[in-house]
């Protein structure tokens, strides 16, 4: 008789697999034994050994149906014909583009992107929507006499559209009610307070990134840069409250970051409390200084983007 040693070697687990084993009760859903990996059944093992095709891959006579090779999604037929239009045609089409469709128009091709990057495109859009009836509401920088300057032309046209273009004007109330928790991790630029009759308005200007030296000197080196915008990425957090609270001293060699925003009910369950936490980051990303400001009761909290009229009025 031949005896087989049933003991495995020390330090090793038994890895014997019965590839041709029958289906056991443990492979069903009502089994009491819980396994993370399902066991291969005999049918699956046979299919792997003989490479059996699926039923859908066989014809009526049981022969395998040859499937065409799959082509990548980005492939185009060799006989595909592209149409290239002159730049003048794209300029004529650009005169009919709505302000909210500028981004889609620039993504059509490289030619449309170059059209959007020209001063004539933004001058044309400004003239189409400007009316003299709005002279009393539009700031001096956004009036026709000052719009002849190329520097910062794109940002000025966008700002003017929120005075003259009706669909943009109707969006202003909804834009001011955006989630102020999105300002977390923004860098503080400046802060100030504006007293009112019965309330106090505290403003914090924040930026989503620190300005690079090249960005700061960009406007001084090129006076014909239509994309120059020193307010790019900036927002103003406006907090209106009935009680005065001194502004925190956020000056120093390193800038402060808004690390936490907490907006909740007070203990009387009628008023709201806003807590702002500013931290001073060092090179090792360690909080060297933490300053907390608490406003209670809070009447209104708004977030203003650089293109809204209220943003420039607060400045």
UniProtKB/TrEMBL annotation:
Which keywords accompany this UniProt record?
Membrane, Transmembrane
What organism is the protein native to? Answer: Pseudolycoriella hygida
Q: Where is the composition biased (Basic residues)?
A: 9-18
Q: Where is this region: Disordered?
A: 1-20
Q: Which domain of life is it from?
A: Eukaryota
Q: Which InterPro entries match?
A: TMEM183
Q: Tell me what this protein is called.
A: Transmembrane protein
Q: Which GO terms describe its biological process?
A: regulation of protein stability
Q: Which GO cellular component terms are attached?
A: SCF ubiquitin ligase complex
């Amino acid at each position: 008789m031949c005896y087989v040693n049933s003991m495995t070697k020390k330090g090793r687990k038994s890895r014997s697999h019965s590839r041709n084993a029958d289906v056991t009760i443990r492979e069903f859903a009502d089994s009491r034994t819980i396994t993370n990996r399902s066991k291969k059944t005999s049918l699956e093992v046979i299919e792997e050994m003989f490479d059996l095709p699926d039923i859908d891959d066989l014809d009526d006579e049981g022969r395998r149906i040859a499937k065409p090779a799959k082509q990548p999604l980005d492939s185009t037929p060799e006989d595909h014909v592209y149409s290239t239009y002159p730049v003048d045609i794209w300029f004529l089409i650009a005169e009919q583009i709505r302000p909210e469709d500028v981004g889609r128009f620039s993504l059509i091709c490289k030619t449309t992107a170059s059209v959007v990057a020209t001063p004539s495109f933004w001058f044309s859009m400004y003239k189409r929507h400007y009316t003299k009836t709005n002279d009393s509401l539009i700031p001096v920088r956004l009036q026709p006499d000052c719009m002849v300057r190329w520097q910062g032309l794109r940002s000025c046209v966008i700002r003017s559209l929120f005075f003259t273009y009706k669909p943009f004007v109707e969006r202003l109330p909804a834009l001011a009610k955006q989630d102020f928790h999105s300002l977390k991790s923004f860098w503080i630029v400046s802060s100030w307070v504006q007293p009112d009759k019965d309330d106090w308005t505290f403003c914090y200007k924040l930026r989503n990134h620190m300005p690079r030296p090249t960005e700061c000197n960009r406007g001084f080196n090129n006076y014909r840069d239509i994309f120059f915008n020193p307010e790019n990425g900036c927002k103003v957090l406006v907090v209106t409250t009935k009680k005065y609270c001194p502004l925190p001293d956020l000056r120093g060699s390193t800038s402060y970051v808004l690390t936490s925003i907490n907006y909740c009910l007070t203990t009387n369950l009628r008023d709201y409390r806003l807590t702002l936490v500013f931290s001073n980051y060092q090179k090792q990303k360690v909080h060297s200084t933490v300053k907390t400001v608490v406003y209670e009761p809070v009447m209104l909290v708004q977030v203003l983007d650089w293109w809204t009229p209220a943003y420039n009025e607060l400045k």
